[in-house]
Design brief:
The complex is a heterotrimer of chains A (360), B (443) and C (362). With 360 residues, chain A is α/β, with parallel strands linked by helices. Chain A has 15 helices and ten strands. Chain B is 66% helix and 1% strand. The longest helix of chain B has 43 residues. Classes of the chains: A alpha/beta (360), B mainly alpha (443), C alpha+beta (362).
Chain lengths: 360, 443, 362
């Protein structure tokens, strides 16, 4: 019901908005915080075209669907999660794009061949990789230090509470990995009833010790305050704490789950042409690499990674950023690329089961 | 000598005779034919004419709120109810397949005719409709989404009949009878399937109602928890609000104004700020736990879990909703003169009995209004439970928000919303029966 | 027990709310059994505070109140067994009339049959036998008032307090209710302490009236005494209409005094409350005791007066003279067949007896 209300307000906002934005401006919708700042610096400051309006949202397709269905679209470019990118394209909320218009890699490789993961549909434009990973604060444990995802699930060896999120994504993969399933068989195992049972059995081992978080800023607080000895977190939050605030946090790269992040163009975007130009700009290797100066999320284009490698120290604080990149070569072997197609099929069911599990 | 003579009629005692004359209707003076005004038009016409303008004005005044109401209430609720039962997409996209499904015995392996119907349907369908349908079908059986997507992509590689082996070649899951069976749940354009889903039930292939897999049963639990939390929060608010409201109503104005500011302060503070403040207070390394440990009342290893769980949700919601309880109770208490309590004591009742028999019953309209207000707001709450609910403090509102925002299963969200609305209406009806709605005083 | 035994005694009662000013100053008062005593005074004179102390809702700051010779300062209100009619009746709005009446019987644990009998009797007493099932809001002001009286009596209290019970009623109803209260008092033989600021109500109802001013009882006497023989200027002024002549005592003759009023006239008056020769005094003279155009030398005090204003009031003509230096001297000339006919500006003699003119404090 809440959404219908917002719907009505949106209608009003559209009327006002269309009056106000006669000239082409690009309404860029993203997530706020340090992430949006990095985008403004890497994409906005290097952009010579129309004015960019940076708008924050909290994810989800609710608003997007409302805009498209009511025919009152005010957003142009939206920064989306992998499931949003897929569902949104399936539901016709995003515009399919011509691949030919994008900037190829310096060696001439076309954009759609230059991404570390295949483009799932015609709507998406490459953005970044980020990951769920475990971390702890230096000095928490005496003697042996945790170094694998199995250690995260081992509360005997490494006592203390564990911070985990309130939805199942990445946790199922991590649980199975910790239980000994090889990286390349994770989704095979997850596609069976038994495999899911096995994952929940592993999760049961830390349930007593779990503190559940739902906001991305929480894990750092949980670990810093000592409420939990280890927590899962978005790698960018941990990286920002280390790189920008000098916190003594230790990420455990083993068993991290990489998630794709895409840009999309709203169906019926009011400033479609300008937005397309902007999308070409931000997906170009130079801009992709540039964002890593400000935040340790990994560019999706391979050629952008090469630019960073060749120009270290790349981070704006004068340190090497490559050791903090979630998609750098040396950690890929023990990382999982989240299978968004699998989650699109089974995510709903699993979310219900996970919520039930949390509540028991 | 004006002083000696009364000329002012108003000072005369009321005369019953005079009154009778002035109120005597003119109608009785003219029993035959319609009554005419002085200029000869019928009285009725004249009256209607004189009322017309004021009627127009009244309509003019009512119009804006009416439009507001229609746009913000009637249309959204209507669309909510429509969404919650609408299942027309599958009929639109898969007419042949569903017809073939009707002829099928639901247990044997699907035959070539069914595959042909499916192929033709998918071939004829819009690509967008197909991907939407995939999402819809996935609610009935996980896996449909990718199955439809893979098949849509591979459709152009199928050159002609027989279709069965070609489809099976595209994806072996087409041989899985469970997918075919799940079509049964979507064959009617109007469905109550979302309402069933909202209480952990579903249709099987024959449209019989059955429970969902035991691992997935979460909605009933959340409904009960939502009711429980709302009830606890309502009772908690009542217990805290009653004495505060009494103080507000009885303290001298200067002090009660100050207290009123304290009561209203939360309204002026951002919800997030308040929630964060509670986190600092209640978390395991928070102020309360630290104090208890440092006072030696609590062992360091047994710190209380008051945040990111049921307790946290209840505590924070009580604080946030407290003003909604205080204000109606206060406004009712304000109207109760202190003489009632005095009278009751004077008549022999102890102060406690006077409170129970005389004061309390008179505050019931405020208590009722406060309880219904808090309960209704609590039952749909989701921001606070999302932030502090953790593992077992999240409510049905969180799942509605999830389905609105993330899963995009608006049918299920609408069904849950409608159920919530129905629950509130039932509550209102019960309240009306018990206390009477006209007895409610909102403040 | 005889009827003159005191039922209530206030002994040296003082009351202060803020510790700085006294609302009630050293009050001593006895109320006899069966008496109808009215506390009369302007607002803020302390009369309601006294009633509240008696009912137990306000503690006395100093002194002791006795009820049937028992000190009751420490007895809570609900144990005093005193009936009370509140200013706005305080009928419980959520109960029917019958339930309101049954309330004091309920809390006393009375049996159902006796309760019903008593409620019926009380309702019949105030002629509201048919109204038991109504709610207070469904009754008129007068009916509510009667219910309030009935409720204060239903548990047979020896003492009933009434705090301006007729204040909310219109004039006609008020007069009617006065008679009803009076007859109830006489029929039941209860003791009533009544608070009002309306002197005619006090005169109509009371056996005795205690006139309050500034926290002190100025005079406590039966109505006729209070009217005829006020003991000080406040009481003379407060009760009934009163002509005042200001002057200085010139001669003290024991029972009478001669007072020089402002313009040089000398008035002979009854000595009531004057300090002695040379002290200021207020002469108090009731308007109906003044004779217009008396036979010369028939009265000790005769002065020439100028007619200032005439107001025709039916049974009498209210005439304002200027005499003895005041132009606010009122005389009530009865509208009889032989009355003097005056017009504004006419000059005429007015006179009065010595005993009708009381020399009081200034």
């Amino acid at each position: 019901m809440h959404n219908y209300l917002r719907n009505a307000f949106l209608c009003a906002a559209v009327v006002v908005g269309t009056l106000g934005t006669a000239q082409a401006e690009v309404n860029m919708v993203t997530w706020g915080g340090a992430y949006a700042v990095s985008q403004q610096k890497a994409y906005g400051d290097t952009w010579k075209g129309d004015k960019i309006n940076w708008i924050n949202y909290n994810g989800g397709l609710g608003e997007i669907r409302t805009q498209v269905e009511s025919g009152a679209v005010t957003w142009d470019v939206v920064d989306v999660l992998p499931d949003q990118a897929r569902t949104g394209c399936d539901e016709g909320l995003f515009e399919p794009l011509d691949r030919g218009m994008f900037v190829p890699a310096p060696d001439g490789t076309p954009m759609d061949q230059d991404t570390m993961r295949a483009l799932p549909n015609d709507c998406v434009v490459p953005n970044i990789f980020w990951s769920y990973l475990a971390f702890y604060e230096e000095g928490t444990f005496k003697g042996e230090q945790p170094s694998t995802i199995a250690d995260f699930f081992d509360v005997k060896k490494f006592p203390g509470k564990r911070g985990i999120h309130t939805w199942p994504n990445a946790l199922i993969e991590m649980a199975l990995l910790a239980d000994g399933v090889p990286v390349d068989q994770i989704y095979e195992v997850m596609s069976t009833e038994k495999g899911i049972d096995r994952a929940f059995a592993k999760l049961d081992q830390i349930k007593e010790h779990a503190v559940f978080w739902s906001s991305g800023s929480k894990p750092i607080e949980l670990v810093k305050s000592g409420e939990t000895s280890m927590s899962l977190a978005y790698n960018g939050r941990v990286g920002a704490a280390i790189l920008s605030q000098g916190e003594k946090l230790v990420p455990i790269w083993d068993g991290q789950v990489l998630e794709e992040q895409w840009f999309t163009l709203m169906k019926g975007a009011p400033n479609a042409e300008a937005a397309k130009k902007f999308l070409v700009h931000i997906s170009a290797p130079q801009q992709q690499a540039g964002q890593a100066k400000w935040i340790n999320y990994g560019p999706m284009r391979k050629s952008a990674m090469e630019i960073i490698k060749a120009n270290e120290p790349w981070h704006n604080t004068g340190v090497n950023v490559m050791p903090h990149m979630p998609n750098r070569d040396d950690v890929l072997a023990t990382s999982i690329f989240s299978n968004a197609a699998w989650w699109a099929d089974y995510g709903g069911e699993l979310k219900e089961r996970y919520t039930a599990w949390m509540s028991q | 000598m004006a002083g000696l003579v009364f000329t002012d009629q108003s000072r005369l005692p009321p005369s019953p005779f005079l009154n009778n004359v002035s109120t005597m209707p003119t109608a009785s003076a003219n029993p035959a034919g319609p009554i005419l005004t002085v200029d000869g038009t019928p009285l009725k016409t004249s009256l209607e004419r004189s009322l017309k303008l004021s009627k127009l004005r009244a309509v003019g005044l009512v119009f804006p709120p009416l439009v507001f109401l229609i746009f913000l209430f009637v249309i959204p609720i209507g669309s909510l109810l429509t969404r919650s039962v609408d299942d027309s997409l599958s009929n639109k996209v898969l007419p042949r397949t569903l017809a073939a499904f009707e002829r099928w015995d639901k247990t044997s392996e699907p035959d070539e005719a069914m595959f042909e119907a499916l192929y033709l349907d998918m071939k004829a369908a819009e690509k967008l409709d197909l991907s939407k349908l995939g999402t819809r079908m996935n609610y009935e059986k996980s896996g449909w989404r990718s199955l439809v997507k893979i098949t849509t992509r591979g459709l152009k590689r199928i050159e002609g009949p027989p279709y069965k082996p070609a489809m099976l070649k595209l994806n072996k899951r087409w041989g899985d009878i469970a997918f075919w069976q799940s079509l049964g749940a979507m064959k009617d354009p109007v469905t109550f399937g979302y309402y069933l889903n909202a209480v952990d039930l579903k249709y099987d292939g024959n449209k019989n109602v059955m429970r969902v897999n035991k691992h997935r049963r979460i909605y009933q639990l959340l409904w009960w928890r939502t009711l429980l939390v709302s009830t606890i929060v309502t009772i908690g608010c009542l217990i805290l609000a009653y004495p505060v409201a009494h103080l507000l109503a009885t303290l001298p104005l200067r002090i009660s104004n100050l207290l009123m500011i304290c009561v209203l302060m939360p309204f002026w503070t951002s919800l997030l700020v308040r929630i964060v403040a509670w986190m600092i207070m209640l978390q395991q390394n928070g102020v309360i736990n630290d104090s208890l440990v440092s006072l030696g009342l609590l062992h360091d290893d047994n710190r209380l879990e008051m945040m990111y769980n049921f307790t946290g949700t209840v505590i924070v919601m009580i604080q946030i909703l407290l003003p909604f309880m205080i204000l109606p109770i206060y406004s009712v208490m304000k109207t109760i003169p202190p003489s009632y309590m005095k009278a009751a004591q004077n008549l022999g009742a102890t102060p406690a009995l006077a409170f129970l028999k005389v004061y309390l019953p008179q505050t019931i309209p405020g208590v009722g209004a406060g309880c219904i207000l808090v309960f209704i707001v609590a039952i749909g709450y989701y921001i606070t439970p999302e932030l502090v609910g953790g593992k077992d403090g999240r409510l049905i509102g969180n799942l509605i928000a999830h389905h609105m925002q993330h899963s995009l299963n608006w049918g299920l969200a609408a069904a849950m919303g409608a159920t919530l609305l129905a629950a509130i209406l039932i509550l209102y009806w019960v309240y009306d029966k018990l206390i009477g709605v006209d007895n409610m005083k909102m403040g | 027990m005889n009827a003159h035994d005191p039922l209530v005694r206030f002994v040296n009662i003082q009351k202060s709310y803020d510790g700085e000013t006294l609302i009630v100053k050293d009050l001593n008062l006895s109320v006899a059994k069966g008496e109808f005593l009215t506390m009369l005074g302007p607002s803020g004179s302390g009369k309601t505070t006294c009633l509240m102390m008696l009912a137990g809702f306000e503690p006395a700051t100093h002194g002791e109140i006795y009820l049937e010779d028992q000190p009751i300062n420490r007895v809570p209100p609900h144990k005093r067994g005193i009936g009370m009619v509140f200013q706005n009746y305080a009928l419980f709005p959520h109960m029917t009339v019958a339930e309101n009446l049954a309330f004091p019987l309920d809390v006393r644990g009375m049996s159902k049959s006796e309760k019903m009998q008593r409620v019926k009797r009380a309702l019949d007493m105030v002629q509201l036998g048919e109204f038991g099932d109504r709610r207070p809001v469904q009754l008129s002001g007068g009916q509510q008032q009667r219910v309030a009286v009935a409720r204060s009596l239903v548990f047979d209290p020896a003492l009933v307090l009434m705090d301006e019970p007729l204040g909310a009623l219109d004039k006609n109803l008020r007069e009617q209710m006065q008679y009803e209260i009076k007859s109830i008092h006489e029929n039941l033989g209860i003791t009533v302490v009544y608070v009002t600021h309306d002197q005619s109500e006090a005169l109509t109802l009371s056996n005795r009236i205690a006139v309050f001013d500034d926290g002190v009882i100025q005079q406590c006497a039966p109505p006729d005494m209070l009217y005829e023989e006020p003991e000080n200027a406040f009481v003379a002024n407060f009760i009934g209409e009163n002509n005042r002549l200001m002057g200085t005592v010139a001669e003290d003759n024991g029972n009478t005094v001669k007072v020089n009023v402002n313009n040089g006239h000398v008035v002979e008056a009854k000595k009531v409350k004057v300090e002695g020769v040379g002290s200021p005094s207020t002469l108090s003279l009731r308007p109906e005791r003044v004779v217009v155009a008396p036979e010369p030398a028939s009265l000790p005090n005769i002065f020439l007066a100028k007619t200032e204003e005439l107001i025709y009031l039916g049974d009498h003509i209210r005439t304002r003279f200027s005499v003895c230096g005041t132009d606010d001297f009122v005389v009530k000339i009865p509208n009889s067949s032989v009355h003097v006919c005056l017009s504004e500006g006419d000059e005429v003699n007015v006179g009065w007896k010595v005993e009708d003119c009381r020399a009081l404090d200034a």
